[in-house]
Amino acid sequence: MAAIEAEVIRTVNVGTHTLFIGRVVGAELLSQDAACMTYEYYRAVKGGKSPKNAPTYIGTVYG
Asked: What is the chain's Cα-based Rg?
């Protein structure tokens, strides 16, 4: 697991979201043993859900 610090150099409005573009100004390794926080982990362990009308909705996850 690591932490990255960035200076925002530009923002772009992409409709439903804002995209932040940054320049990395610092980074630190926090742990070599920690599990990565992926979207798959978020959905499986943290219970992240998408509404059925969302473009990212997945009715059944196979894996």
From this structure: 16
| CA 4 remoteness from chain centre | 13
> What residue spans define the domains of the chain?
2-45
Q: Which amino acid is at 1?
A: M
Q: Return the closest-CA partner of residue 55 out of 16, 12, 14.
A: 16
How far apart are alpha carbons 20 and 6 in whole angstroms?
10
Structure tokens belonging to residue 45? 């362990």
Q: Determine if the pTM surpasses 0.85.
A: no
pLDDT tens-place string over residues 35-49: 777 777 777 776 666
